[in-house]
Write a structure and sequence with these properties.
This protein is mainly alpha-helical and about 150 residues long. It has helices at about 5-25, 50-60, 65-75, 75-105, 110-130, 130-150. The longest helix has 28 residues, at about 75-105. This is Cyanobacterial aminoacyl-tRNA synthetase CAAD domain-containing protein.
């Protein structure tokens, strides 16, 4: 006999056997008649330690939005202060990285040094050499300070 035909014969015999067993196990349900249901008996076992932990964690996670909103409302000023401090720190790091990148460009760093020296020389000549110009510088600084602080001079 061919192994394929043998296999199909065995599987057809097995399926016939299974069909006979299913026929024997068939239960007939009559929906017209009402019957009594078995009473539900609650589990008498205590919940395990794992189930208690899971229940506690789900309770905490369920109340998490409430905890977060109360924490933020209570500590709003320190949170804003820390946020501003961290953003200032990141800004300084980015500026230093940009300056370092500019310094790596050939001839650009000496050019900026030359511009800085030229501006410093002009500032000394314009504001610091004569007493009248120093007085003008003090007035300009006080006007800017009053604008920033909020005092208006008449």
């Amino acid at each position: 006999m061919n192994p394929k035909t043998e296999k199909s014969a065995i599987s057809s015999e097995k399926s016939a056997q299974l069909a006979d067993e299913a026929e024997q196990l068939r239960i007939e349900i009559n929906a017209a008649e009402g019957g009594a249901l078995a009473p539900f008996s609650p589990a008498t076992q205590e919940p395990s330690q794992f189930e208690e932990i899971v229940d506690n964690v789900t309770a905490i996670l369920g109340d998490l939005p409430l905890y977060v909103t109360s924490f933020v409302s209570e500590y709003q000023r320190p949170i804003v202060t820390v946020g501003l401090f961290l953003s200032a720190l990141v800004t300084v790091r980015v500026i230093l990285a940009v300056v370092d990148a500019v310094n790596d460009v050939p001839l650009l760093a000496p050019f900026f040094e030359f511009v800085g020296i030229g501006y410093s020389a002009w500032f000394v000549y314009r504001y610091l050499l004569r007493a009248s110009n120093r007085q003008e510088l003090v007035q300009d600084i006080s006007a800017i300070k009053d604008q920033v602080v909020g005092h208006h001079s008449s």
